[in-house]
Amino acid sequence: MNLKKFTALVGMIGAAVCSVYFFNKNVEEDAVQMVTGNWVASELICNERVDGIIGMDLDDTSMLVNGAKYDVDHYQVERIDNEFTCGAVGKAHFIYKVTMQPAQASIEVGELNDFAVIRNETGQVYFKLTPEFKAFYDDIRAKG
Fold first, then answer.
1. In the list 1, 25, 32, 56, which could disulfide-bond 39, CB 3.0-4.6 Å?
2. What top-level branch of life does the organism fall under (predicted)?
């Protein structure tokens, strides 16, 4: 193999490695951005085993669930394609599985209608607490 072909081959391999690295980095950043925030699960929406309302708070360094705080050193992100039907509310489409390290807690992250949604390992479904979700929840609660 001559020097020109070898140099071109090394350049193509380098470009492929860089594109995979930066693609994965963007996927991880997107998933972490989606998952961080305040989340609520309610017995009224998609959860039969939730009594009342429970919350979960996730940020870059910790996860707060049921009053217990867990440190998060990093997030491990995997692309998935799962669906979950939530009664009359609709169908959730999960696009990421995110594992918080070192806690080893995993959640699926996606969307249900226009709402960000996560599902934990026990099947509880949480919605990102936004003004739009709060209005939706209040409407469902008013209808009883």
1. 56
2. Bacteria
Question: Token pair 């509310």 is at which residue?
Answer: 89
Burial bucket for residue 21 (CB in 10 Å: 0-12, 13-18, 19+): exposed
Cα separation, 138 vs 144, whole angstroms: 10
The single-letter code of the amino acid at 76 is: Q
What is the percentage of the chain residues whose pLDDT exceeds 70?
A: 82
Q: Is 63:73 a contact under the CB 8 Å cutoff?
A: no
- The Cβ of residue 119 has, within 10 Å, a number of other Cβ atoms equal to 24
* Residue 45: pLDDT band with limits 50, 70, 90: confident
What are the counts of helices (DSSP H) followed by strands (DSSP E) for the chain?
A: 2, 8
pLDDT tens digits for range 89-127: 899 999 999 998 887 889 999 999 889 999 999 899 999
- CB distance 87 to 116 below 8 Å: no
What's the length of the chain?
Answer: 144
Structure token pair of residue 101 = 């390290």
119 contacts 96 by C-beta, under 8 angstroms: no
Domain that holds residue 80: 3-143
Amino acid at 63: M
